[in-house]
Amino acid sequence: MERWLTLRLDTGEDITADIERIFREGNSVALVSVLVNVAKYRPALLTGPLTALITFPNLFYWDNGRVKQLADNFIGWSWLQSGKAVSDFARDWTLAPHRQQKFLDIVVEVLLADDDVARRLQALLTTWALPEDPKNSLEFRVLFAKLDRTNYLPVTDPATGAKT
Predict the structure, then answer these.
(1) Rounded to whole angstroms, how far apart are CA atoms 40 and 96?
(2) Global pTM exceeds 0.90
(3) Residue 155 and residue 69: Cα distance in Å, rounded?
(4) Long-range contacts for 46-51 (Cβ within 8 Å, ≥24 apart)?
(5) What letter does residue 49 receive in the DSSP assignment?
(6) d(C-alpha 50, C-alpha 90), whole Å
(7) Across residues 129-138, what is the average pLDDT?
(8) Where do the domains of the chain lie?
């Protein structure tokens, strides 16, 4: 489904109705992963039909773990039974550049560029509960800090004068 949606995006199609249908009728948690990867493929969708994805802090945490283990998800020898072309296609899709990016990094790029997203996240951060476990609580506080636009200040490179 992810591949189908990204191919449609590549042809310029509007997949808003498909996303809305998945949210409305989908009954598998696997669809959340599909939508997160579609958001990574086309971050602009986070300001529209995929904006709901940024409201659930565990998605950032879970995706981080998934990205760390991405290379382990492709077992090349099992695909070779279907031939080299199929094996190469499966490898290329599993390890596609957008799937190697962290959802958190994509959302940070969007919140730095979009005032509405930044405001929405700022309001959400105060409502998100921290886990009771001290280690998990610390990890979530770091996550929340990364999603707080006020923690990003422009810096001027003294050598070039460029602002980042």
Answers:
(1) 11
(2) no
(3) 33
(4) 46/106, 46/107, 46/110, 46/117, 47/110, 47/114, 47/116, 47/117, 48/16, 49/15, 49/16, 49/19, 49/20, 50/19, 51/117, 51/120
(5) T
(6) 26
(7) 94
(8) 2-151
